[in-house]
Design goal:
single chain, 875 residues, 24 strands, nine-stranded mixed sheet, alpha+beta
Length: 875
């Protein structure tokens, strides 16, 4: 037998009790070993935790490398409803799980980034898993929000940076405050960054990470809250029981109680008279009441709120963080956003200091979401942050929105003074190539003309050409000292028909003159249309008058063409020669004979066959306005010269500064204005002969549009419709938009790049506020102070405003440009450039013009016509 057999047999046949005893002995031995060698257990636990954390971080970093970013740009009229915002929140929560199975939970989140760095008031971006891009690209907001793939943001290092993490404080089951959508819940955040200055390196960014709630964590949190609620209820019951016993003891020891017992004969019965006190029983804890917003699983998420502010100027980043903290207080209700950390005297230990800073930087850089355990919210609580700024949000104007005006820059057009939220004032401008047409409305003295003058003076000093039409002439003496510079004097021409002073001087213009190279048919059409516009003629009401006028103009223009070709432009006919053409047979015969070869067959036939059949009184309707012009000495000399100096086409092409003061708004003045307006339209349209890239920009300014459009409504309307093609941009000012002809008003509002309104009656300004969607309302605009404007402008192809602007005052904005000592020299130079001469001298020359034209026709008939006929074989 094997000697070891008894031992083996005894070992295998051990009783269960001995085995249990051995197991207990081993456990006791192990428990005794742990206190002795605790450091081995601790090191093992730390090693396991470190290894698992390193693996999780590596996987999370790999998952974060596959994230994508979308930028959401809302339209001006973006106004979502609560349901649309809620659906967006559901999309975000669902997209947060669009990660590979191996991705750690900290990488499964969608991040909302609100960023302000000076390029825009607040940029709204969504960052999340690449797998959720298709889900996030199509939003429930519809076409009111443009979603584009965003580029990575690269920030330059700033000198001063502060960081903060926010967690929910207060009752853990209570919701945040329900913030209404009007005004926009983002308004406090935008106000907090409204005074941000990009030139100082200011930067503010808020990142809200949204993560679907894990079931196990939610259950653990509920167990914790229910346990806390039960303990609180037991403590409350115990406290109530103590107070009940104390109250009962106090009553029994009172004199009143003892006296009642004595009277009732219950004294001395061994305390039988004592009342039985029943302590209150703890009430059952209601889960709905104890768990609050955590009672339901649906639409419950965890959030992480991180904030970073930076600047190159000391103190600005800290102040910005304090502003954002105050802005987040708006969302406070039963719970509120509070900055994580502790204050110790002047120091704060939080995300900016060890040991929290390293974790903050990692989460900030990689987009990891590791929220505090208290940060449980329902999607309804995040309504204000789940969408971009809406129509109810008041956005500040940044330098990137409206450029700052710089004197002498030809690419900028001065608009006014903007006061930033922090009180800083700056001159703002629009880009000249985008400011096609402007409309200014408001009561007299409100600052319309002052703003237009400031803009025109700035444009002139930058080298631009312009035409300022002012029927009342008040603008010329106001602008005179600011234009009195040597480099401008040769470019300024004054056309003044007011004939003020003891020795008035006037310029001259021949609307039908051909010495400036105009096309004959364009001159005839422009002049006839001007007359018809003022007199109300059309083909239905005055066909014969139009026919007679057009035939006369065709003859006179042909006469002038012949005079210019003969080298005698001073002998051209004027509009006043229509009278002798119609009533003087000798002059008419000479004119028709002299230019017979220049007239088309239809015109010659009309003069031969139709004209002799017309009664004499048929000419009265045509000659009446001519007689009225001739009766006024100013208009007589202005239009009565053979070769006038005024040439608006040449002024446009040479960047001239032309000031035109027609002199009033009577019938005669309206006819002059109509002729000037129609000639401007003809001259601008004639620029079709110049390649587009060679057309020089030109800006006509029309003060008192009511007066000007009363003379030529269709002409002014055509300007606002056609001039953009030829780089001529009209600026119009009027007191009442409603008093303008319908065609002009519609063209103005339709094509205006800039709409501005000063104070006025509500009915007057409502036409402008209606274009702004009644924001601001007419009563707000009507209550503006003097020189205050509400304006909408076009910058980079989009509308800015309406925003409140202070109109520029010449004495402030152009204080360094004023030259009052050279004002007299400028006026003399401006009149000389316009070819002005004394009134009596021009009157004498106009009186002799008919004789000069007749002499030219006689000489032309006796010399040129026979020679031409002989050359053609008509002998």
């Amino acid at each position: 037998m094997d000697p070891a057999a008894p031992y083996l047999t005894g070992h295998t046949s051990a009783s269960p009790s001995s085995q249990l005893l051995g197991l207990v002995s081993g456990i006791v031995h192990a428990i005794g070993w742990v206190p002795t060698y605790w450091w081995v257990v601790a090191l093992t636990g730390v090693a396991v935790w470190a290894a698992s954390e390193a693996l999780v971080r590596r996987l999370a970093r790999k998952a974060s490398a596959e994230r994508m970013a979308l930028e959401l740009v809302p339209s001006r009229h973006f106004e979502p409803g609560l349901e649309e915002i809620f659906r967006r929140g559901v999309q975000l929560a669902r997209a947060s799980t669009s990660m590979p199975w191996w991705a750690p939970r900290r990488s499964k989140a969608v991040q909302i980034r609100l960023r302000a760095d000076g390029s825009s008031p607040l940029r709204y971006r969504i960052e999340g898993p690449a797998g959720g891009e298709r889900l996030l690209s199509i939003t429930p907001f519809g076409p009111d929000v443009t979603v584009t793939r965003a580029r990575p943001t690269v920030d330059k290092p700033r000198d001063h940076v502060v960081r903060a993490e926010f967690l929910l404080r207060g009752k853990p089951t209570a919701p945040l405050r329900e913030v209404p959508l009007n005004p926009d819940p983002l308004q406090p955040l935008i106000d907090a960054v409204s005074d941000l200055r990009a030139e100082l390196g200011d930067l503010a960014e808020i990142r809200l990470d949204v993560q679907r709630a894990p079931k196990w964590a939610l259950r653990a949190r509920r167990v914790q809250l229910m346990g806390h609620a039960r303990r609180a209820e037991r403590r409350e019951a115990q406290r109530a029981a103590r107070w009940v016993r104390q109250d009962a003891t106090g009553i029994e020891d009172s004199w009143t109680w003892q006296l009642q017992q004595l009277v009732a004969g219950k004294q001395g019965r061994g305390g039988a008279g004592r009342r039985l006190v029943m302590p209150p029983v703890p009430r059952r804890v209601d889960p709905q009441e104890a768990l609050g917003k955590l009672a339901e699983d649906n639409h419950l998420v965890r959030v992480q709120l991180l904030v970073m502010c930076a600047s190159n100027t000391s103190g600005r980043a800290e102040a910005r963080l304090a502003q954002l903290q105050a802005a987040l207080d708006v969302f406070g209700g039963g719970s509120r956003w509070a900055m994580r950390g502790r204050n110790l005297g002047p120091w704060r230990f939080g995300a900016d200091r060890w040991p929290s800073r390293r974790g903050f930087e990692r989460r900030w850089k990689l987009g990891h979401c590791q929220p505090p355990r208290a940060n449980w919210v329902r999607l309804e609580e995040l309504t204000g942050l789940l969408k971009p700024p809406t129509v109810h949000c008041r956005l500040p104007l940044l330098a990137s929105d409206l450029p700052t005006f710089e004197h002498g820059d030809p690419s900028l057009l001065l608009q006014g003074i903007y006061r930033a939220p922090d009180g800083r004032r700056r001159l703002i401008a629009t880009y000249a190539n985008e400011t096609l047409f402007e409309v200014g409305v408001g009561k007299a003295g409100g600052g319309k003309t002052e703003r237009a003058l400031a803009q025109a003076i700035g444009w002139a000093h930058a080298g631009g050409g312009l035409m300022f039409v002012d029927p009342h002439r008040d603008s010329w003496p106001r602008a005179l000292p600011f234009l009195a510079h040597d480099h401008l004097m040769q470019r300024i021409a004054l056309i003044d028909l007011n004939a003020a002073g003891p020795a008035p001087q006037l310029s001259c213009w021949n609307p039908i003159g051909m010495h400036q190279g105009q096309a004959a048919h364009e001159v005839v059409e422009a002049t006839a249309d001007a007359y018809a516009s003022v007199l109300g003629w059309d083909d239905a009401t005055a066909p014969r008058a139009l026919t007679i006028l057009t035939a006369c103009l065709a003859v006179l223009v042909a006469v002038n063409t012949a005079a210019c070709q003969a080298g005698r432009p001073q002998d051209q006919a004027t509009v006043f020669h229509m009278r002798p053409l119609l009533t003087d047979p000798v002059f008419r015969a000479a004119a028709l004979t002299a230019i017979e070869e220049r007239l088309d067959e239809e015109t010659r036939s009309w003069w031969r066959t139709v004209f002799p059949t017309l009664p004499t009184d048929a000419f009265a309707v045509v000659l009446n306005p001519i007689a009225r012009l001739a009766a006024n000495p100013v208009t007589r000399v202005f239009l009565g010269q053979g070769a006038g100096v005024y040439n608006i086409r040449a002024a446009m092409d040479s960047r001239m500064i032309v000031w035109v003061c027609p002199g009033g708004n009577g019938p005669t003045d309206r006819l002059i204005t109509a002729l000037l307006a129609r000639d401007l339209l003809r001259a601008v349209r004639s620029r079709r002969d110049t390649p587009e890239d060679q057309r020089v920009p030109f800006r006509p300014y029309f003060d008192e549009l009511i007066t000007l459009t009363g003379a030529a409504p269709e002409t002014i309307a055509s300007m606002f419709e056609d001039f953009r093609k030829y780089k001529v941009h009209v600026h119009g000012m009027t007191q009442l938009l409603a008093r303008l002809p319908t065609s002009v008003r519609l063209s103005l509002v339709q094509n205006a790049s800039t709409l501005a309104s000063t104070a006025g009656s509500q009915s007057a300004v409502s036409a402008i506020t209606a274009e702004w969607g009644e924001s601001p309302s007419p009563d707000v605009v009507a209550d503006l102070d003097r020189f205050e404007h509400y304006m909408s402008m076009t910058v980079h192809g989009r509308r800015i405003g309406p925003v409140r602007i202070t109109g520029p005052h010449l004495d402030d904005v152009f204080a360094d440009y004023t030259r009052p000592g050279q004002a007299r020299a400028l006026e003399h130079a401006a009149r000389a450039t316009a070819g002005s001469a004394p009134l009596n001298q021009l009157t004498e020359r106009a009186a002799q013009q008919l004789a000069r034209v007749s002499d030219f026709l006689t000489q032309h008939i006796t010399t040129t016509i026979p020679a031409a006929r002989e050359k053609k074989g008509y002998q």
